[in-house]
What does this fold into?
Amino acid sequence: MKSSTGFEQINRFEDELDKCTKCGFCMSYCPVYQEERVESSVARGKIMLIRALLAGELTATDEMRKQLNKCTLCMTCAQNCPAATQVPSVITAARADGVRQKGLSFPNNIIFRWLLPRRRLFGYVVRIASWFQGIFMPKTKGSTRHLSFFLSALGRGRHIPQIAPKFLRQSVPEINQTPQGVETKYTVGYFTGCMTDFVFPELGMKIISFLTRNGVEVIVPRGQGCCGAPVFLGAGDFDTGRRMADSNVRAFKDLDYIITDCATCASAMKDYAKFLADTSERKRDYADFAAKVKDITEFLVDIVQLPASAYRVAAEYKGKSVTWHEPCHLGRYLGVKDQPRKILKSLADINFIEMPDADRCCGMAGTFSIYFYDLSQKIADRKIADIKSTGADIVVTDCPGCQIQLIDSITRHGLPQQALHIMELLE
Amino acid sequence: MIESKHIDRLRQIAGKENILTSKEELVAYSYDATNLWSHTPDVVVLPADTEQISEILKLANDNQIPVTPRGSGTNVSGGSIPIKGGIVLCTTRMTRILEINKTNLNATVEPGVILQDFNNALAKEGLFFPPDPQSSAGCTMGGVVAENSGGPSCLKYGVTKQYVLGLEVVLADGKIMKIGGLTPKNRTGYELIMLFTGSEGTLGIISKITLRLLPAPKANKTIVAVFGDVAIAGETVSEIIDSGVLPSKIEFVDNWTFEKFQGLLPPEILANAQAILLIEADGLPEIVETEARQIVDICKRSSTLEVRVPQDGEEAQKYWQARTAHFSDISSAAYTIVNEDVCVPRDRIAEFIRISREQARQNDVPLSIAGHAGDGNFHPVVLTDSRDREHFQRALKCVDEIIETALSLGGVLSGEHGIGLEKQRFLKKAMDPVAIDTMKKIKDVLDPNHILNPGKIWEEAPDEE
It folds into this structure.
């Protein structure tokens, strides 16, 4: 395919774009297509739209933007594609070129360009949002869309947990040493991610406590910010994404490992080099940074190699049956599949049940679920059916984004299950 | 262009969210899995049920609007491309499996069910629908019937037409017709089911399908045989069938697409190999054992470089995946591919392969041959570049010659892909003119206004609309 001007990012993934042979195998794998059953939803359709865009047969209209946004980037198509076409990369690149051509629309321009890169300010806004949360949550339907990122999700009736009264960074010191009598074997940086910082700080505290008790000193660098996933992957704003990547790279410069409790953050950070490296220095820095990023379960099982006996269930979850939802970013992006299952199987006091299609996308996908909340719910409904089929008391996962989706869907269906992060199960 | 009042009427019939009119959405219905043709429709309609299909056809027939039926658009003949514009009637929202009956060994489905989803549902009941086109992950049941699909398993089990028991079809004027039934035997009147099976959407829209099923085979075993000579591979196929075993599949790939076999077979063997046969025996475990042994013996007696039997299903699956990847591998090997679908009698396989390769050499174009060797159905693929006029012309000439060869050996133009747009120019050579004329007369009776999938199967005379 000929390179075309105005499509710098897509052109970088030209080989991927050319790989698709239009065989249509993606039809039975794409979670969006399975709900909508229209060609523009499926990977092949999006590839063809992007080809038409490059050929000048179509232009970057709002409709085109909508179609390109309508993808959870779950990677299932790419995993099952006989030609191994990396469709999510092409779509991300196309979103980026769209932003370069037309800019971000309100309110995303405010949120992504201005708010997310400023961690403390973002914290204040989230705090204000939390005051509104109590007022708006019971009755709002669409009326709060322009208030903020969180409220716009809330505004459509989504059940999300309360914003924490005290954020994680306000609750823990920057350096968390191992307790007396426990030898320090590793020092890691903890990338907390927005969700754990603002919504699930007790998860962060539990992780820090678990790690330090097991000989891992935990640094929570104050200079860290948002991973940038909603900005450069979701909205295609590569310029802002680069600023965020740079500040995260700086914040964790001197550490050997960067652990996360969020598969999305981890894989977004590993993708800095692929999408955001515009100079050879950045390419090197981002690659070095990526090599240090480890998901928490991957770090515990592969690096620290904790014995099974190190994992004990917190008293409140003893005797419960537990099933596991595998986040797309964990399994397909990071290739972390066995590690969380190994931890779950180590836990003597729970009954672990594997759910059918555990690796099926839950439909959250960050900004996707805000643009297409109804669609996101339909995708989640299939996950709910799978959870129900196990009869488990608890569903655990390893991504606070998925967790919020699971909480929302379980509440919507009036089910008794709890949705937790896998680390919350531990003592 | 379709008039806006007709689009309004379509909105009334199917609901406004099921009518697609944006430029972007229309481009997404302008192609299928072929790469030489495309045309955007004026509108895409996604009906929910038979009644809506009927109303849509009444509107189209009264106003002479072309209607191109489509499922997932995974076909490889150009058949679902709306070459005359008008309406694309897409059945992908009709996804219900209405019944699976273990005692009657049949199932009734809507046309938009994806074959793989159907197979998954059958597997839970221990049942089996044998036709297995390589597009099973995407193709819909309506397409499977309308294209009379085949696939590897058809060697032992036959093609789709051997499994269709009943159909509900919406005719061009909107009348709903039920034909066939639920029973495997049915001698009531003409075999109208056969008329619509393989009709490529030119005679009516299939809105419900009842299929005959089989109990799933209890066991299977894969045999991999590697050959240093393509013709010997072809002869071996004949020997296997002559020996009285009927494997469920005998698949052939040539050395154009060995990449996916790297890591499965030793590099020194692959380096000297010209062709691989993948053979599967299925049935009761003890029979499978005996047949597999017999096949292995035959392969060993031929001059094979290697014969192996994968340890278990998981290992065998890897070889079959390498086979499935053939189409995408070969597609990515060239800017344009011309993929044919000829069949030759089994005792002419070796001859066919030899002559085709010679024809490719004479025309100086790369040729890859893969296919369902067991039933003589081959997919010769000429690799070319449609932007390079001279090369492309040579490629088309080579394709013409290969098709002539297949026909002269007593074969047919298309084994399983159908004629659509791609093979129209060969139809006159491949079919008795009286038969072509009869098809046209049938078309005139069932679709006098020629609204259904116009421009397909036969070339239109210059004065024809």
